[in-house]
Known about the structure:
80 residues, 5% strand, mainly alpha
Amino acid sequence: MKSISKAVALLLALGSGAALAADAAEVEAKFKAADKDSDGKLTLDEAKAGMPRVARGFDKIDTGKKGYVTLDEIQAKASH
């Protein structure tokens, strides 16, 4: 019985890891599509046009008040 529980736990862990990887890939694809000038940064206007959820939380993601957010900043905020 314990081995079945361990197997189920392992499958659940692997499945959630795959889901997280898929989510990260989806966010990256959306980021690249929204980044119209391909500079690796999203302005508020780019976020509004291509990543509305990022646009709604833009001020919370852009903690340095730079006027743009990066993919790393978006992913870091999403993981919290």
